[in-house]
């Protein structure tokens, strides 16, 4: 939980490198704000 109590804002987080980053940050304990081009692609 290295990122506990941290907040990350990730653009392009619905696929590819952005999605992998969101996944890793969540597993490390961060709160994540995800930006995507459509609501459907942002539902993780």
UniProtKB/TrEMBL annotation:
This is SDR family NAD(P)-dependent oxidoreductase. It comes from the Bacteria. Coiled coil: none annotated. SUPFAM superfamilies: NAD(P)-binding Rossmann-fold domains (SSF51735). Pfam families: adh_short. InterPro entries: NAD(P)-bd_dom_sf, SDR_fam. It comes from Blautia obeum.
